[in-house]
Design goal:
Blueprint: H1 6-20, E1 28-32, E2 37-40, H2 54-62, E3 66-70, H3 76-83, E4 87-92, H4 95-104, E5 108-111, E6 122-127, H5 141-150, E7 152-163, E8 188-195, E9 198-199, E10 203-206, H6 210-219, E11 222-229, E12 234-241
Parallel strand pairs: 3-4, 3-6, 4-5, 6-7
Antiparallel strand pairs: 1-2, 1-8, 7-12, 8-9, 8-10, 11-12
Length: 243
């Protein structure tokens, strides 16, 4: 998960800034509509390439040209690519996150919500740590994809990872899953986050299974290639505009 609302961004920015200053004493707590309480370990957001999951490593290895790292967080992906000699820009809507990116040495940063950004076009758009979740709800996915298309240079690509969270629902004896039939997509989740007593407002987040993503891409002028499936219902996809 990454930043979506300003309130949530403040929680992330605060936590990352504390870690950068050597004042890390607790992790970010998350509360979701799936009735689960969890944590995001703050040190994990500062991970090296070797500490990243395979889907992220594969994405970074496939990145090329002029790159926009969307929802950059602490800038770990951007720094890796910058050190490889790529021209990469880290974009985030959190002042704290952007400040940490700069302190860590990211040379090009943008403080903005991705839907409000249209300044330049890129060869590669990176949406890692389920960056497609920034769409919020499935009904917003078409608009989100169309905006990404507007940021691509000719022959550009979008590299994103997400997860099929069907595994979080009850399973019956024949292997099927009991998914609520309430008219909403099962990958839609509402989150709140908390750090050192500071809580975010609730925000929407969406996990998109690969079939749903491929259908959305087909409707919005994208080819969608499944690059690799991860170890736990996660995957990396590569999107390119149809000719």
């Amino acid at each position: 998960m990454q930043k979506q609302t300003e309130a949530m961004a403040d929680v992330f920015g605060m936590a990352l800034d504390d870690y950068q200053k050597g004042e890390h004493t607790e992790d970010i707590k998350t509360y979701s509509s799936l009735d689960e309480e969890d944590v995001i370990p703050v040190p994990y957001l500062f991970r090296t390439f070797d500490e990243m999951p395979l889907v992220e490593q594969k994405a970074l290895q496939r990145a090329r040209g002029k790159i926009l790292d969307i929802g950059a967080g602490a800038g770990s992906h951007a720094l890796y690519l910058q050190n490889k000699g790529y021209k990469v820009t880290a974009l985030d809507n959190s002042e704290g996150c952007i400040a940490v990116c700069k302190e860590r040495g990211v040379e090009s940063t943008v403080l903005s919500n991705i839907l409000d950004y249209s300044e330049e076009r890129y060869d590669t758009l990176l949406l890692l740590m389920n960056g497609i979740g920034l769409a919020g709800k499935l009904k917003n996915l078409s608009r989100f994809l169309q905006h990404l298309a507007s940021l691509l240079l000719p022959n550009g690509q979008v590299l994103l990872d997400s997860s099929d969270i069907v595994y979080m629902f009850e399973q019956d004896e024949d292997g099927g899953y009991w998914i609520p039939d309430d008219g909403t997509y099962y990958g839609e989740v509402t989150f709140e986050m908390e750090y050192k007593g500071h809580k975010s407002k609730p925000f929407d987040w969406v996990y998109v299974d690969i079939n749903t993503l491929q259908n959305a891409c087909e409707s919005n002028g994208f080819n969608c290639e499944l690059v690799i499936s991860g170890e736990h219902y996660d995957y990396l996809a590569r999107l390119t505009l149809k000719k």
